[in-house]
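[Q] Does anyone have a clean structure-token version of this?
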Amino acid sequence: MENYLSSAISKIYGEDDDFILLGLTGRTGSGCSTVAKILASKRKNIKHSLFKGDTPSTNNERKEKIITQHFDKNWQPFILIQVRSIITLMLAEKDIKQVEEYLLTPDFSLDAISTKKIVDILEDIKKEYADSNEEESARDFYSEILPSKCELIKQSLGESSFVKLYQRIGKNIRKSGNPLKKEQVNGLFFTLAERINSVITELRDQKSGEEKTFIVVDAIRSPLEAIYFQERYSSFYLIAISCEDKQRKQRLRNLGYTDPAIKTIDEQEYLDTDIEDESSYVTQDIQACLQRSDLYVSNQDSENEVSEFKVLTNQLLKFVSLMKRPGLVTPTALERCMQIAYTAKLILVVYHARLVL
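[A] Here you go.
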């Protein structure tokens, strides 16, 4: 009877579904990479402060105990896909001589030594990619080998120069479908999104047996690319990561960013866009991504190293548990208020739309 009831409940809550896709979005320094790292971790490496005793004394502790039990029994690490790694792969697939010439243009001010290091890394990636179908699984290549090579490029350039270069290359891909060309070509805006989607498909096809496929994409910075995945996957959730602006800027300074560099990044990510300006569609628009997000996670600095990331982890474990089993715990008072506010907003939108018509 117990097995029968368990299988019935599993069917009702869709636990047979073997796929979850998460997209992370947020301003540089808000903590998207930190969230991705937590989601991609094994259960034993995840530190949280959820209640796990035997006798919860409050309703909140009872909810936390339920989430803890679900986490202990059902956690499976997410496969990490870094957008910057996919951009790196697309760059490695181009002619190396053309890439070298592009990096030496005055736009980036790279010296010959740095350029040579990057070119050598790209050649290694090209070789690894050619051999991956035979020797490595797709998961190993996209979540471990490619990110490690991308990290080497970042170390060669420095954090600020790396962000500047990849923002430019990403813009080129959305304009022309080619990381080295900035001339706009119609119909190629979703080249990057389509490439990420092909990686997702490859990872799903390569799974074995009853293994489930949970994937996190770090990070989505174009609202149109967010829509691309929202329209294709019912199990896609866009998660917005935020923190106080003062904390975010201090994190960037700790990483070696100068104040002018931080200002430049903020201006690129938070531009005032004009719907009639074609260039606005290929630039990063974090504000629009935040507005389209399904979930919001706060990543404030911890008071001490002991509690570092635990509050952040608590939020993630709760959301992932609810994705796997909707209704596992009831909403908090704040979440209920937010739902009421969201519903009121929709009613106003519909009302004004009818007035216009």
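[Q] Thanks! Anything notable?
[A] The chain has a mean pLDDT of 87.
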